[in-house]
Amino acid sequence: MKDTSLRHLFPFFQHANNAELIYFDNAATTQKPQSVLANIHDYYVFKNANVHRSSFALANQTTADFEDARAYVQQFIGAQQKEQIVFTKGATESINLVAKSLAEIDFPAGGRILLSATEHHANIVPWQVLADKKNLQIDVIPIDQSGVWDLEKGLALLTEKTCIVALALVSNALGSIQPVEPFLVKAKALNAISLIDAAQAVAHLCIDVTKLDCDFLVFSGHKAFAPTGTGVLYGKQKALEKLPVFLTGGEMVKTVDFHSTTYQPSPLKFEAGTPHIEGILALKEALAFIDNHRSQIIQHETALIDYLLTQIKIIPEVSVYGDLENRIATLSFTVTGQDSQDIGILLAEKGIGLRVGHHCAMPMMKALNILGTIRVSLSCYNTFAEIDFFIAQLKAAIHQLQQPDATHVNHQDNSSKTSIASESRPILSDAKQATPLTDSIKSARGWDQVFRQIMLAGKTLARLAETNKTPDSEVFGCESQVWLVCQTSPSNRLIFEVDASSKIVRGLLAIILEPIQNQTAEFVLAFDYKLYLSEIQLDRHLSESRGNGLAAVIEKIQDYAKKHG
After folding, report:
1. N vs C: which end of the chain shows fewer Cβ within 10 Å?
2. Same domain, 315 and 388
3. pLDDT of 426
4. What secondary structure letter does DSSP report for 461?
5. pLDDT tens sequence across 293-310
């Protein structure tokens, strides 16, 4: 199949360390084209001066370039004037700017805020804070079992009591292009304030704020080939004028004395302090990159997602979520009978970088009655060959995880599963001393064998009773759901019980617990977990997030030891 990607324009993929990486996490952040990187370099070599302050030639030119970037953003999203463009650190700050500013405005009694069940946490939490402060109620557009909005029920929630409508144009978790237009039309008719989160849309769709006719629109630069720490808040002129100031400080003021202060008009009144100058100049270059390659980007990404959908539908265990017809090049799915975290771990070992979990959309996952999904988010530099490799590795991962439970660890059987009643383990003197599970890990050759031994280690753990899976026993900070409980034996030793939704994580937990099970609190506190994982060479198979998850478990183990010591 002909390669129509723009991969050759992105130096990231030319570097030896990244040449084999399959980067399918573009909804989290995109790589940067050479033109953007060159722009950042040129700023610091030729243009480094502050803006809106000094009157010498270099500062004047940099200020002019900065305002040219504002004008380019205006044109890119179809705004009527550049003063409607406020620069921020990202979509999250933009939403918070609006929500916190609105907290200074009075709302009628019984007012309501309309969100959708598919919103990112960044478009939920700021409105919760506002609702609590102003005594407003939140309504939620419901979704069906695939995560698609129920349009009829959602529109029925938008009434004369609705004060604010805040919706994402594209779901970050599902990739669905949401039907926001009828909500915006009705919101305008009812004089409700409307905000559109375009963070996931800006790199994939043509955005026209005049046609959308929303009061506010936000997006982040880093999801559209620009640097991190760059973002945009668009607002209708009257809407921006009504907002009180958000942050105060230098450059957003007209006059200051110790009795009163007057402020600049929008957008400067919302841009206190020195802005992310080089980032904003590079944002213009990133948007120009999209403009210059718009047709090729759309055609290539459309072909990619269509091909991925065709290939993944062949796998019987896969369930795809979201609107399959109206979507960007992002696909979210689960595998029947398997924890998504296990799939993600196996794919990561094959050099496939994608996102697994709730994707900062916990309420949506709860509405779908799932713990999370596997998300493949594509961009213009991804290729059909990468999709082929991904599909092959996904099938292989499913096959590995479906291996029958009849296989046992060679040194144990079901009668030796760790439980609250077992007190027969030997006392170990230090982290280097061999144990049955560690022996099996150290003797394994290659990741596939290591994985197999980890999976078998998990089978040595008795499953935790559902009554013990409480908020107090849950360990937060792990990639999968983990629960840990501890009791003291008659001989004053600590006995741990642990469980996890992920088979692989459960195996890792069994390995962590083996040397400390039935030991004294003093031993558990003194045990060198880092050295232990290094000695059995498991540390190299732990991603930072997975390592942090085990660190959270170890911290809870030590908390129990301190309590019982």
Report:
1. N
2. yes
3. 35
4. B
5. 999 999 999 999 999 999
pLDDT of residue 7: 96
- pLDDT at residue number 432: 43
List Cβ neighbours of 365 (8 Å cut-off, separation of 6 or more): 173, 358, 371, 372, 373
Reply yes or no on whether 360 is catalytic: yes
CB within 8 A of 368, min separation 6: which ones? 143, 145, 147, 321
Q: How far is CA 143 from CA 59, 194, 363, 543, in A?
A: 51, 20, 11, 34
CA dist., res. 73 & res. 198, Å (int): 13
163, 206, 214, 360: the active-site residue: 360
Q: Residue 435 sits in which domain range? A: 414-564
Q: Within a domain: residue 431? A: yes
Q: For residue 450, which of 359, 538, 365 has the smallest C-alpha distance?
A: 538
| CB-side neighbour CA atoms (13 Å) of 15 | 8
Q: Report residue 198 as tokens.
A: 């375009």
* H/E segment holding residue 377: strand 373-377
Domain boundary among 220, 248, 283: 220
Contacts of 506 (CB under 8 A, 6+ apart): 458, 461, 498, 499, 500
- Of 529, 385, 548, 524, nearest to 476 by C-alpha is 548
In the prediction, which pLDDT does 4 show? Answer: 85
Is 267 within 8 Å of 250 (Cβ atoms)?
A: no
Residue 159 bridge partners (DSSP): none
pLDDT at 421: 34
Residue showing tokens 């919706």: 167
The residues of the chain scoring below 50 in pLDDT are 406-434
Short-list 388, 400, 193, CA closest to 317: 400
Structural domain contains residue 270 = no
